[in-house]
Design brief:
The chain is of the alpha/beta class. It has one domain: Rossmann fold, CATH 3.40.50. The chain contains eight helices and five strands. A five-stranded parallel sheet has the order 2-3-1-4-5, sandwiched between helices. It is globular and about 45 Å long. The two termini are about 35 Å apart.
Length: about 220
């Protein structure tokens, strides 16, 4: 797998699924660049969890902007890379917030239009690795890592996200190769990397097609 030129791997999954850990170890194992989700320096995140309706739109725009910057840097550098959470996943959060009436419909329309326009400048990952984690397991991991800003996350919120992720995986797999992985099945990240490599080489994907806009 490391012999592929300009290989772009996206790591997708729920909050606490283990994306950052896998991205780090895949980067080491495959000797490729790693791009992490902007969490530590996210100036909106604490406000978002404190007052979600007020900061939902601003937070989603901030994340979309940062993720697009990462996405373009991966393309411009022209080197193999793994990205901790794909740009497409931001739409899962935005769509869920709109469906629950937390984000105003006009704000979501604005977000969706912006995403659609930006998508014209995106290059799809070669493959997305989806870490399949239940809402209950996600909650357990959030509690274990004890990030202060995440203390207000509810199981109901995670259940809504999980539904969104299942919809996302079904739709994106028509366009981008997807490998669904149960993280708890593997003893080491190296073992997982080898499985991902073989799945990629053998084209064991859910489905393949040509284009994807998650806001549609």
């Amino acid at each position: 797998m490391s012999g592929y030129a300009n290989l772009f791997i996206g790591i997708a999954g729920m909050i606490g699924a283990g994306k950052s850990t896998l991205a780090t170890r895949l980067g080491e194992h495959l000797k490729i660049d790693v791009y992490y989700e902007p969490v530590e320096d996210n100036e909106y995140l604490a406000d978002f969890y404190r007052d979600t309706p007020r900061y939902a739109f601003a937070t989603q725009i901030y994340l979309l902007n940062r993720r697009f910057q990462q996405h373009q840097e991966i393309i411009w550098r022209g080197r193999s890379a793994v990205q901790d959470r794909t740009i497409y996943e931001d739409s899962i959060f935005a769509k869920m917030l709109a469906r629950k009436g937390i984000m105003e419909e006009r704000d979501y329309r604005n977000y969706a239009t912006l995403f659609h326009n930006m998508s014209n400048f995106m290059c799809k990952p070669n493959v997305i690795v989806y870490l399949d984690v239940s809402p209950e397991r996600s909650m357990q991991r959030i509690q274990e890592r004890s990030r202060g800003v995440e203390s207000g996350i509810s199981l109901e919120y995670l259940q809504g996200l999980h539904e969104g992720y299942e919809e996302f995986v079904r739709d994106v797999s028509r366009v981008i190769p997807v490998i669904r992985v149960d993280y708890d099945r593997f003893r080491t990240v190296e073992e997982m990397a080898e499985v991902i490599s073989q799945e990629y080489l053998n084209h064991n994907f859910l489905r393949e097609a040509t284009r994807f806009d998650p806001t549609r």
